[in-house]
């Protein structure tokens, strides 16, 4: 095993554990991945396993089209979105995708989630955009909508798929996971603040 792979694997396992412990993803939903540098390959969460079940024994390595290269379990359909992001944005090293409830709730009513807390304003460059796609796996036909959201906001580190969940990305999966957590925190406050103002104005 070369040093790059060991580093990627450790980032993957650490981010999976942290995301599981954060409680922002229940059951077997969501997906995370880490790029294996120089290989056009990624480590992805196997389908049907929770973040908490990810271990060294069930690593799933695929190409950027989601085809299994190493491992016994099936990668999720959602992994093709990850591969397309790695292919287009070389600076992305890790992606965390979660079905976190308040991010989803906001996405059903807003086109973006405003950075209304000091911490989100400090850490995130833009209000978090909502991308409206129909399928869960994001088809090739829908990808331009995702790319447009990112390309029009240089330095963007996350978007929310409407009615589906957050996709956060950074140099490492651990950092991406921290962004996903911050987005959920921001989404809770954004939603509750909206209710407060609605009631106040009645
Ligand atoms: Zn999903």
Summarize the structure.
The chain has 202 residues and is α+β, with helices and mostly antiparallel strands. The chain is 41% helix and 19% strand.
CATH architectural type: 3-Layer(aba) Sandwich
What sort of overall outline do the alpha carbons produce when their principal axes are compared? Answer: globular
Strand order in space, largest sheet: 4-3-2-1-5-9-8-7-6
Helix % is 40-55%
> Structural class of the secondary elements?
alpha+beta
Major β-sheet profile: 9 strands, mixed
Report the order of strands and helices: HEEEEHEHEHEHEEH
Gap between N and C termini: 63 Å
CATH class: Alpha Beta
CATH superfamily: Class II aldolase/adducin N-terminal domain
What is the mean predicted local confidence, pLDDT? Answer: 95
Total of domains: 1
CATH topology (fold) name: L-fuculose-1-phosphate Aldolase
Q: What count of helical segments does DSSP give?
A: 6
């Amino acid at each position: 095993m070369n040093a790059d792979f060991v580093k990627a694997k450790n980032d993957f396992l650490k981010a999976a554990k942290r995301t599981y412990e954060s409680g922002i993803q229940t059951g077997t939903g969501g997906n995370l991945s880490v790029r294996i540098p120089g290989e056009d390959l990624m480590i992805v969460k196997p389908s049907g396993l929770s973040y908490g079940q990810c271990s060294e024994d069930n690593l799933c390595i695929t190409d950027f089209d989601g085809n299994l290269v190493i491992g016994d379990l099936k990668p999720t359909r959602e992994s093709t979105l990850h591969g397309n992001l790695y292919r287009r944005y070389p600076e992305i090293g890790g992606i965390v995708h979660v079905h976190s409830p308040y991010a989803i709730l906001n996405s059903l009513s807003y086109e973006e989630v405003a950075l209304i807390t000091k911490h989100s304003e400090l850490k995130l460059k833009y209000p978090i955009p909502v991308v409206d796609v129909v399928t869960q796996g994001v088809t090739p036909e829908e990808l331009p909508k995702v790319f447009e959201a990112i390309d029009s906001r240089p330095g963007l580190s996350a978007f929310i798929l409407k009615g589906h969940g957050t996709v956060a990305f950074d140099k490492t999966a651990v950092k991406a996971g921290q962004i996903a957590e911050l987005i959920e925190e921001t989404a809770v406050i954004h939603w509750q603040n909206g209710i407060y103002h609605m009631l106040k104005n009645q």
